[in-house]
């Protein structure tokens, strides 16, 4: 399988399955169709990363993109403020993503 052809949805599924196997809790805020179009019911700044991942006191907020997808200005602003807790993951980064998710728990 070539990772380069994954859609963001397929990549997300792969990330979540791997996270679950390795004991991470996760949440994904999905947009829903409303009379005004697609909306995600979250108050606050736009561009919040796609996934919240937590395990043993480690929290990651990860923006997922395809290999060619470009983060928006708002998404980049979130990642900047998140510092070491923020991630921008793409299918081509799979080796790093897998290594981080499967790293043994610290303690
Ligand atoms: Mg995304």
TrEMBL record:
Alphabetically ordered keywords of this record: Hydrolase, Nuclease
Among InterPro entries, the record links this protein to: tRNA_endonuc-like_dom_sf, VRR_NUC
Q: Where is the VRR-NUC domain?
A: 6-106
Q: Name any cofactors this protein relies on.
A: Mg(2+)
Q: Does the keyword Transmembrane apply?
A: no
Tell me if Nuclease is a UniProt keyword of this record: yes
> What's the protein called, per UniProt?
VRR-NUC domain-containing protein
Please name the SMART domains in this protein's record.
Answer: VRR_NUC
């Amino acid at each position: 399988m070539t990772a380069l052809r994954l859609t963001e949805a397929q990549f997300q599924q792969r990330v979540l399955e791997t996270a679950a196997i390795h004991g991470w809790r996760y949440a994904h805020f999905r947009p829903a169709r409303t009379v005004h179009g697609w909306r995600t019911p979250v108050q606050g700044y736009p561009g919040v990363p796609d996934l919240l991942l937590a395990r043993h006191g480690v929290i990651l907020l990860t923006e997922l993109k395809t290999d060619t997808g470009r983060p928006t200005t708002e998404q980049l602003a979130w990642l900047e403020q998140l510092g070491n807790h923020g991630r921008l993951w793409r299918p081509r980064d799979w080796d790093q993503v897998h290594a981080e998710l499967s790293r043994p728990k610290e303690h």
